[in-house]
Amino acid sequence: MSVRPKKSLGQHFLKDDNIARKIVEAIAGFKQKTVVEIGPGTGVLTSKLIEKENINFYAIEIDSESFEFLNIKYPTLGKNLIFRDFLKFELKETFTQPLTIIGNFPYNISSQIFFKILENRDIVMDVVCMIQKEVADRIKSSHGNKTYGILSVFLQVFYDIEYLFTVGPKVFDPPPKVNSAVIHLRRNERKKLDCNEELFFRIVKLGFNQRRKTLRNSLKSILLNLPTDNEIFGKRPEQLSVEDFINLTNLIDSSKDQ
Ligand code: SAH
User: Fold this and answer.
1) Element (H, E) at 46
2) What does the pLDDT read at residue 255?
3) Contact 44, 23 (CB under 8 A)
4) 3-state class (DSSP) for residue 14
5) Is the pLDDT reported for residue 257 higher than 80?
6) pLDDT tens across 39-79, in order?
7) Which residues does ligand 1 sit against, CB inside 6 Å?
8) Could you give all domains of the chain from N- to C-terminal order, each with its CATH number?
9) Which numbered atom of ligand 1 lies nearest the CA of 12?
10) The pTM is what?
């Protein structure tokens, strides 16, 4: 039995065992014992993860064909192989302990996976994942760059980002049209933002939704008639560091109360 790759599920199966080994080795030494793989597919990472001692391993797969294939190939996985859509899976209903997420992510939904990870940031301590290189570049991008955006700010607030290595298309079946990259996100020390979190997320989103406009213009629906003489309102979102966004949130929040 084999699994027919489905484009709609972002299936590009990794064929290179060395790269698979390098990805799995990247989680060595992490403190948390629970390891959750997103999208095991045909099991190239899974086969190495189940050999690891001292971890509690789970895999979440949406594709019934892959699920059946893995059930037969790795019967010891049992209930730890979960047949579900990761985006609809309530991590905290199953896991209460800190955990690691690993996977060659389906590229078509990688941003949504990161938003889901952010929602669960109090238990997701480390993420080692392969994604489209362009998305990896955006995530690690800092202010002042064209590629700096919503995902960079949101992830960098709560995670330290490490770019591990680049992977070309030829090692996949079928090969994707783009280059790939493996990155490591590690939860930082920040438990809470030093500002109104909900307002912070709104400001970052609204700002980058119209990234060419100054913040004075793009944030109109929040600012209403608040004073905008501070020079920060004349800037564009990509000029603001993560700290600047926190300061901006506090500035807006405090002038609202006056
Ligand atoms: N880990 C495998 C497969 C990577 S391809 C390898 O390295 O070869 C991406 C995998 O994610 C596929 O198996 C696909 O079926 C799965 N997938 C896609 N969308 C998913 C979702 N919403 N939830 C869980 N798995 C998903």
Assistant:
1) helix 46-49
2) 86
3) no
4) strand
5) no
6) 999 999 999 999 999 999 999 999 999 999 999 999 999 99
7) 9-14, 38-42, 44-45, 60-63, 66, 85-87, 103-104, 106, 109
8) 7-187 (3.40.50.150), 197-256 (1.10.8.100)
9) 5
10) 0.96
Mutate to test the pocket of ligand 1, among 102, 104, 182 (most ligand atoms within 8 A of CB): 104
- Whole-angstrom Cα distance, residue 94 to residue 85? 14
pLDDT at 169: 98
Residue nearest to atom 17 of ligand 1 (CA): 39
Residue 37 Cα to ligand 1 midpoint, Å, equals 9
- d(CA 134, CA 151) in angstroms, rounded, equals 12
Structure tokens at 228: 């905008």
Q: What is the 187 CA–ligand 1 centroid distance (Å)?
A: 24
Instruction: Please name the residue whose Cα sits nearest to atom 16 of ligand 1.
Output: 39
**Closest ligand 1 atom to 87 CA:** 22
pLDDT in tens, 17-48: 999 999 999 999 999 999 999 999 999 999 99
